[in-house]
Amino acid sequence: MKRPGRDTILSHKRINRRGLILGAGQAGFLGLLAWRMRHLQVDQADQFRLLADENRIKIRLIPPARGQIYDRNGRVVAENVPSYRIMMERDEAGDVDAVIARLGRLVDLDPDEVEKAREEMRRSGLHPVTIADRVSWEELSRVAVNAPALPGVRPEVGLSRRYPMHEEYAHVVGYVGPVSDYDLEKMDAPDQLLLIPRFQIGKVGLEKQREEMLRGKAGTKRVEQNAAGRVMRELDRRAGVPGKDIQIATDSALQSYVHARLSGESAAAVVLDCQTGDILASVSAPGFDSNLFVRGISVADYRALLDNKYRPLPNKAVQGVYPPGSTFKMVTALAALEDGQVLPDDTVYCPGHLEVSGRRFHCWKRAGHGNVDLMRSLRESCDVYYYELALRTGIEKITAMAKRLGLGVEHDIAMSSVSEGLMPTKAWKRAARGEEWVIGDSVNSAIGQGFTLASPLQLAVMAARIATGREVKPRLIKSIDGVEAPTGHGDDLGLNENNLRQIRRAMYAVSNNRRGTAYRSRIIEDGYRMAGKTGTSQVRNITAAERAAGVVRNSDLPWERRDHALFVDYAPADAPRVAVSVVVEHGGGGSTVAAPIARDITLQALYGGPPPLEAYPARDRPRIQTQQKKLREQQLSRSGKLDDRA
Amino acid sequence: MSYLEYTVKSVPTGPRKILYLNWPLALLLATVACIGFLMLYSVAGGSMTPWSEPQMKRFAVGFAMMLGVGLVPIWFWRNISVVAYLVSLALLVAVELFGSVGMGAQRWIDLGVMRLQPSEVMKITLVMLLAAYYDWLPLARTSRPIWVLIPLAFIMVPVYLVLTQPDLGTAILLIAAGGIVMFLAGVHWAYFAAVAAAGIGLVTAVFKSRGTDWQLLADYQFRRIDTFLDPSTDPLGAGYHITQSKIALGSGGWTGRGFMQGTQSRLNFLPEKHTDFIFTTLAEEFGFIGAISLLGLYALIIMFCIASAMSNRDRFSSLLTLGVAATFFLFFAVNMSMVMGLAPVVGVPLPLVSYGGSAMLILLLGFGMVQSAHVHRPR
C-alpha cells in the first residue's frame, strides 16, 4: 500500500479546513433561518393567526324579515313576498361582458339595470350585485339550469315588500324603496344593513315613521371564504330579530269604500272612532300604487305623478291644510259661549253684511238672515252672527278654543308630514308677517277664513271632540306585535256641557232641519242620524266690483279658483260612534258636494258595509242605488285587475 | 495523478459494495422525500393525485438511480465530467433554440418521458467539472490569476446562458455553487474579498443612482426591490405572495394547525403551494416544531456529506461531495429565506419536497456520486 504524496496530504488538509469553514458558515445560516422561523411562528404567532382568520372568515349580514302591517281586522296591508333575483360576482365571472351576453339570451335584461350593475361591480369586486331583479320563476330556473355556462352568476331568493291594496293605503302606510346615498348621508351611524346595495327602507308614511321597529335587527353569519371569495362553508350564525308586526286602526273595507267614493276628485276624508280615536279611514285622492316605488319608480311614472294637477303624491288628509270655512263656526261659537260673551238665545241682526272699521264684511246670503240666534246661525250658517261674536270675544280666545278642539296642533300619528295647520294669534302675525293684528283679521278668522288653516284630520278630531266633550286623540297604530297601544279615548275637555249641547243641537239641525244647509244629505234612519256642519272656503278674494255685478258662480270659474267644499259630522247624533271630515278641493259648495260624500261615508262606517237604502231620504234612493252599484262595480273591477297584476 | 489510483485495491468490489454505501445519508434523503409526499397529499386536499403519487414514482426511480450511480467507481464519474459539462452546455444552447416556453421563460426540453431542464443538469455537471479541474491542477497553481480565470469562465458561460432564459434564481445558484467549490479548492482569500467588495460597491452604486440621471436600473426594477424590502407596500400585487406566505408560516404557531387543517393553503391563499411555497404549508400545519425538524433533517444531510468528505483523502471526491452538499444547501436555504421574507421571490424549489421531476432526479444523481465517492474512498 503506497503512502499518499505530500501534495495529497496538503490538499486534504486544506480542503478539510475550508470545508469546516464552509460548514460553520452554513451552520450560521441555518441558525439564522431557525431564528427567523421562531420569530414568525412563536413570537408573532398570535398576530399571524389573526391575519389568517381575517383572510378566510367573512361576516355576512342576514337581513331580517320586515314587520308586516295589518288593518284592524287582520287584513294584510303590507307584506313580504319572495322575490327572485339574479346576482353576479365580478371575480368569479371573469369575462363579465361575455357572461352578461350569455345571460341576456336566457333572461330579459333591463339595459339600465345592467349598466347599474356594471357600475356597482367596478366599485366592489367581491360583493355580488343584482343584475336582474324580480325575475319570474321560469327565468330563474333557466339560469339555474345553465349555471355551468354562467360563472359568477347565481339566482337568489329574497324578500320584497308588496302592498296588496295598491292605491288605497298609499298615503297612510307609504312605501319602501332602495336605500339611497342621500338617505345614508342624513344618518349619523347607519345600520350595517343599510349598506347592502338596494336594501329596502321606508321612504314615506308609516313605513318611514316606524322604520326602526319594522326593520328589525340583522343577524350575522360567519362564513369561510377561499382566496377567490367563494364561500366554502358556514361556520356559525346568529339569528337576527325580525321586524315587529304593526296592526293599524283602519278598516280596509271602509278605507277602500272611501277611496272609491272620492275617486275623480282631488279630495281627502278622515273617519275617526269617537271612543278610541282610531283612524278608521284616512284617504287622500287621487292615490297612487305604492308598489311602483318599491324597486325604484321609473322616470316616466314619476313625472306623470308630479304633473297630475290633482297632486296624487302629498297626503291631503293630514298634510293638506285648507281654510276650514264655516266648519270653524262651532269653534267661534263655543269660545264666545264659554267666555260668556253670548247666550244661546241672544240674537244678532244680519242685514247681509257688517261694517267693521270702514270695511264691509259680507254674509254669504246677500239679502241677510234678519234676527239670528245660535241655533239659526249654525243651521243656516250666517256669517254676520260670527263677525259679531269675533268682535266680542277676540282672536286669542277663539284660537285657544280651536287648539282645545284639536285645530292648530300637530297630532302625534305615525304618518309623514303631519301638518300643524294654523290658528293665528296676534303674536304670530307680528312674528310671521311683521304686521300688527287688525280687527278685520279677527272677523275673517271667525268664519274660518283669513289665516286659519286646518287639515281634514284636525277637522275630524274637532268633530269627535265636540261630539264627546273629551280630548279624543287620533290613533293610527292599534297594536304592535299583538300588544295593544294606548287608545285616544282622552280626558274630559272641561267644557260646559250645556254649551256643548247647544252646539250639538244646532249641528243636528244642520242635517235634519228642513232649513239646515245639509238637509238634503240627511240620514233618515232613526238611531243613525248625523250632526254635521257644511263649509265652503274661498280661495280667492271677491272684489267689490264683482260683488256689485253679482258673484260669479263656481261652475263658471276655472277649477283651481273654485271654492273648497268641506263637511264635518259625527253620528249617531245621540250616541256618537264615528266622526267624519271631508274636504273636496275646489269642489264648489260644502252642502252640495262635500255633504253627500260625508253622509255616504258615515253610513258606510256605521253599518260596517253598504247601508240599506232605507237610510236615505226616499227621493234620493234611485240615485243612491245606481251610485252604489257603480261603486261596487268599480271596486270589483279594480280588485280583479289587481289580481291579474299580482 | 491522484492518490486514488494507487489505492484502488483497498476499495470493496462486487456486491459487497452495497454494504459500504452511505446508508444513513440515503435514509435521511428518503425521510425528507416522505415528508414531501405527505405535504403534497395535504395541499391536494387529501388526495394522492395530482402530485403525491407521481412524486413517489419519480423518487423511487431517482433513489434506485442514486444507488446505481453509487456503485459505479468514482473515477468513472471524474473521467466523464468534462464530457458531461459540455453536453449540458450544449443542452442549454439547445433549449435556447428549440425549448418550450413555460411560465414566460424557456427552460426545458421535452424528451417525451419527462421534461429535461438543462439548467438543473448544469448545477451538478458544473460542480463535477470544477472538482475534476482542481483534482488535475497542481496545488501550487491554485491561486495563480490565469488558473483562477479558467474555472471562472467555466462558471460564467452557463450563467450567461441561464440568464438569457431568463432564470435569475438558477444563475445565482450556479455562481454560488461554483464559487464555493473554488473556495474549497483553496483559491486565495483575496479573490473572494475582492469579489465581495466589488459586489457591495455595485449594490451601493445601484441604490445611490436611484433618481439621478445615471440611474442603473429601470424604475420597475427598483419597485420590485421595494416590494421585497417592504411587502406591505403592494399587498395585492407582487407583495401578495410573500405576505400570504408569512401569514401561513406565522399562523402555524408552536405546534401548527394540524395535518390538512392549514386554512391558508386549503383556501388557496398561498401561491404555488405545491412547488416553491410548499414549506409554508408544512410550517402552517406542523408549526415551529415541524419546520425546525425539517431544517434539522437538512442539516443532518449536510453534516453527513461533510463528514464523508473529510474522511476522504481523494481530492475529486471531497470537492464533489462538498460541492453537491453546497448545492443542496443553497436550494433549501434560498427557498426558506424566500418564503420567510428574507430573500426576494426567485423560483427555487425546496429540495426533495417540492413537486417537480428534473430537480429531484438531478439532486439524487448528485447524491449518487456522493455515494460513489464514499464507497470508493481510499482507505
Automatic annotation (TrEMBL), chain A:
It is a single-pass membrane protein. It is found in: Cell membrane; Membrane. It comes from the Bacteria. One of its GO terms (cellular component) is plasma membrane. Residues 268-601 form the Penicillin-binding protein transpeptidase domain. Gene3D superfamilies: DD-peptidase/beta-lactamase superfamily, Penicillin-binding protein 2a (Domain 2). Its main location: membrane. Residues 630-646 have a biased composition (Basic and acidic residues). Residues 612-646 are annotated as: Disordered. One of its GO terms (biological process) is proteolysis. Residues 62-235 form the Penicillin-binding protein dimerisation domain. GO terms for molecular function: penicillin binding; peptidoglycan L,D-transpeptidase activity; serine-type D-Ala-D-Ala carboxypeptidase activity. The keyword Nucleus does not apply. Keywords: Carboxypeptidase, Cell inner membrane, Cell membrane, Cell shape, Cell wall biogenesis/degradation, Hydrolase, Membrane, Peptidoglycan synthesis, Protease, Transmembrane, Transmembrane helix. This is Penicillin-binding protein 2.
TrEMBL record, chain B:
It catalyses: [GlcNAc-(1->4)-Mur2Ac(oyl-L-Ala-gamma-D-Glu-L-Lys-D-Ala-D-Ala)](n)-di-trans,octa-cis-undecaprenyl diphosphate + beta-D-GlcNAc-(1->4)-Mur2Ac(oyl-L-Ala-gamma-D-Glu-L-Lys-D-Ala-D-Ala)-di-trans,octa-cis-undecaprenyl diphosphate = [GlcNAc-(1->4)-Mur2Ac(oyl-L-Ala-gamma-D-Glu-L-Lys-D-Ala-D-Ala)](n+1)-di-trans,octa-cis-undecaprenyl diphosphate + di-trans,octa-cis-undecaprenyl diphosphate + H(+). One of its GO terms (molecular function) is peptidoglycan glycosyltransferase activity. Keywords: Cell inner membrane, Cell membrane, Cell shape, Cell wall biogenesis/degradation, Glycosyltransferase, Membrane, Peptidoglycan synthesis, Transferase, Transmembrane, Transmembrane helix. The keyword Cell inner membrane applies. InterPro entries: Cell_cycle_FtsW-rel_CS (IPR018365), FtsW/RodA (IPR001182), RodA/MrdB (IPR011923). Pathway: Cell wall biogenesis; peptidoglycan biosynthesis. The keyword Lyase does not apply. It is a multi-pass membrane protein. Pfam families: FTSW_RODA_SPOVE. The chain crosses the membrane at residues 20-44, 56-76, 82-101, 145-163, 170-192, 286-307, 319-346, 352-370. GO terms for biological process: cell division; cell wall organization; peptidoglycan biosynthetic process; regulation of cell shape. One of its GO terms (cellular component) is cell division site. Its EC number is 2.4.99.28. It is found in: Cell inner membrane; Membrane. It comes from the Bacteria. Its main location: membrane. Peptidoglycan polymerase that is essential for cell wall elongation. Belongs to the SEDS family. MrdB/RodA subfamily. HAMAP family: PGT_RodA. This is Peptidoglycan glycosyltransferase MrdB. It comes from Roseovarius spongiae. The lineage of its organism: Bacteria, Pseudomonadati, Pseudomonadota, Alphaproteobacteria, Rhodobacterales. The gene is rodA.
